[in-house]
Write a structure and sequence with these properties.
This protein is of the alpha/beta class and 156 residues long. It has one domain: Nucleoside Triphosphate Pyrophosphohydrolase, CATH 3.90.79.10. The protein is built from two helices and twelve strands. The chain has helices at residues 57-69, 137-147; strands at residues 3-7, 17-18, 21-27, 33-38, 44-45, 48-50, 71-82, 87-91, 96-98, 101-111, 119-125, 154-155. A five-stranded mixed sheet has the order 6-3-10-7-12, with helices on both faces. The protein is globular, with a radius of gyration of 15 Å. The two termini are 28 Å apart.
């Protein structure tokens, strides 16, 4: 299903749903950041997705990372809580979702990079290069918060 992210766009469609989403900011031993290239909007992102019934938020983050990247991780903290009503995601089925996402910090445990139905590319991106890839501003903000030396939880 295709999607379009709108952020602070006065012409964005109005939200008609909200769902709990999670994402994970992971760096390897070299400091590179784990990213995927999404199949639904062709943008790079940190891995993440929707909470499923019967799982905790951290279990959802670990599952989403595994499903989208082949990487095993462990949640080690919370980077931020993102709920900007001016960031909506429009899907081609008519759903327009208001952003509500918890971004976790996670540590790399192992695994081999692989793609999935949600990720057409998976890569470790060097710190000096991550700003060169096409990333939505909301994900860039999560990465900046993840890289920050300030470990206070961001919230909106």
């Amino acid at each position: 299903m295709a999607r379009v992210d709108y952020c602070n766009d006065p012409n964005a469609p109005k939200a008609n749903s909200i769902a709990v989403a999670v994402s994970a900011f992971i760096q390897d031993d070299e400091g590179r950041i784990l990213v995927i290239r999404r199949t639904d909007n062709d943008l790079y992102s940190i891995p993440g997705g929707q909470l499923e019934l019967g799982e905790t938020l951290s279990q959802a983050a670990v599952r989403e990372v595994r499903e989208e990247t082949g990487i095993e991780c462990e949640v080690t903290g919370v980077i931020g809580l993102y709920s900007n009503p001016d960031h909506v995601i429009a899907y081609d089925d008519g759903e327009v979702r208001q952003e509500f996402s918890i971004c976790f910090r996670a540590s790399f445990l192992g695994g081999e990079l692989r793609t999935s139905s949600e990720s057409k590319e998976v890569a470790w991106v060097a710190l000096g290069n991550w700003q060169d890839v096409k990333i939505h501003p909301s994900i860039k903000m999560r990465i900046m918060h993840g890289l920050s030396k300030n470990r206070n939880v961001f919230y909106s």
